[in-house]
Amino acid sequence: HIFIDPDPVAGVSFAERKRLFGLARSSWADYDTSLISEGGGVFDRSAKAIAITPQIRAALDLDPGVSTLSPPEMIRAILLAPVDLLWNGGIGTYIKASTESHADVGDKSNDAVRVDADLLRVKVIGEGGNLGATALGRIEFCKLGGRMNTDALDNSAGVDCSDHEVNIKVLLGAAISSGELAASDRNALLAEMTDEVSALVLRDNISQNFRMGLSRSNAAAMVGVHRRLIAELETRRGVDRQLEALPSDAELDRRAAAGAGLTSPELANLLAHVKLSLKSDLLGGDLLDSSAFEALLPGYFPTPLRERFGAAIGRHPLRREILATMVVNDMVDYGGITYAFRLAEEAGATTDDAVRAFTAAVEIFDLRSLWERIRTTPMPAAARNELEMETKRTLDRAARWLLTNRPQPIAVGAGIARYRDGVRALAARVPAWRPGALADDLMSRSGGPIGHGAPRELAEEVFLLIHRFPLLDVLDIADICERDADEVAALYYALDAHFDIQRLLSAVAGLDRGDRWQTLARLAVREDLYDSLRSLTADVLTTTEPVDTPEEKIAYWESTNRSRLSRARAALGEIFTSEAHDLATLSVAARQVRSMVGSAETTATVPS
């Protein structure tokens, strides 16, 4: 049948469709046509012609001269209607790329109704069914301004639900075998958990869609990284670009030149392959067997199972596979599609390393609660994306810091125990240690999201986060120099302001990151500046007393190091005046800052 309701009353229509859903062997012919708006109806697909009413003509934006359409023509007209959403929930491929033939599609039964993506006038397509559009059709639609993902991503909740069902039934089977559950109680328990399982599944689905939205928003900026990641998957995992509809290097170069990136369907495919690759890596190692990660497993199951069968959950035969899925989903959905890949490029990190660094960094800086606020606070998508993107700066820097400065592999529990409480205790005082410059920076950088609709308090907290990242160094310096962390932090931020290090770091952030080597060069300069500031802080502490104010400490230290400092200060002054902040200039600036450091040691005797 073909069902057309030109001007539906949503509540009435929903109630009637719900009635049909519960009616055995129902079809659209069972729909109460008295509930359909004027001019609409239910039409048989075997009819020779369908009369076009004024209401249908208006709804489908048909030419005035069209008085009848054959059923295939009507279906094509519906597909090409200028509407907000086209929802495909059926069987068959109805959209192809203009460059494809019907034979390429391989769905002969729908050749008569299939349309080309470049003719679509809809804004968004959702795929409740499988293969509603070809891969190339999806990409063409998105390149022309449409919005859609892939059938696999839009159907991911169904797959997740099936996985939960299987894993729960395996657990209950074991509980029945061990005598912990009577077989007669099984079905009632399953029914009791329906709503909570739905909530768990939707949580995963929503999280993945937040990731997709964020990835779409910065696809153009990430095209170089995506290019390298696809090549890595091709080499290491045997991913076939043509089969997976992923663009060639030449195509990605063209998009980069045009200021474009991967489309949403391409990002969805990349997301899937990244998750599969990371999961394979985790299953091949022993990280999932550690207590820090095994403790996550109960969170996969509904409350009644956690309360009654905690021990059985720990013995689940698929526990490693479940954990791998949980850990990878969490890291990719919050850290990003390229998170682990970039850590591999930048710090030589393995997948296990990336997971360890992610887990520790998130807990130390309480990022999860901040992400929850960003994702649940009502605001426009653009503002939400800007805020979440900003949090990734701290996540990335903290992860690299942990990989560089902690014994490897990172002991997740020990790392969290060492830094979390100290960072959180000092975090609230950071604005007081950088009063003027920090206020100016927050006003400048949070202005965009606030202007786009983000709440001011939340935006300022997010943009303050990057200024709290150095607290990791502060806590290490405090231990090494055996000084109070508050004293060290006050001096650290005073030195930062005194030498205008933040200005140099901001300039580094603006450098081109077009290829891997430019990215690594930027990182090297940034890390050199942070390392120098860390060493300067320790240097000043070794020559001053705890009772001195930060300003007194700096003044005394400068008075005893005039010759070394004067040359560096002169060079830095020239650089600041020139405003020529390219890589070469900033590399020289970082070297000048490094030259001010005396002989203080800041890497020894850090507690592990």
How would the blueprint of this fold be written?
Elements: E1 2-4, H1 10-21, E2 41-43, E3 50-51, H2 54-60, E4 68-69, H3 71-79, E5 85-88, E6 95-96, H4 102-105, E7 115-116, E8 124-127, H5 135-143, H6 151-154, H7 156-177, H8 186-192, H9 194-217, H10 223-237, H11 241-244, H12 249-257, H13 264-283, H14 291-294, H15 303-308, H16 310-314, H17 319-335, H18 339-347, H19 351-364, H20 367-376, H21 381-405, H22 412-427, H23 430-433, H24 435-451, H25 456-468, H26 471-481, H27 485-498, H28 501-509, H29 516-542, H30 550-559, H31 562-578, H32 583-595
Parallel strand pairs: 5-8, 6-7
Antiparallel strand pairs: 1-2, 3-4
InterPro entries: GDH_C, NAD(P)-bd_dom_sf, NAD-GDH_cat, NAD_Glu_DH_bac
GO molecular function: glutamate dehydrogenase (NAD+) activity; L-aspartate:2-oxoglutarate aminotransferase activity
Organism: Nocardia nova
In short:
By secondary structure, the chain is mostly helical.
Structural summary, described in words:
The structure is a single chain. The protein is mostly helical. The radius of gyration is 29 Å and the shape is globular. The longest helix has 27 residues, at 516-542. The protein is built from 32 helices and eight strands. It has four domains: 2-154, no CATH class; 156-219 and 263-335, no CATH class; 338-469, no CATH class; 490-608, no CATH class.
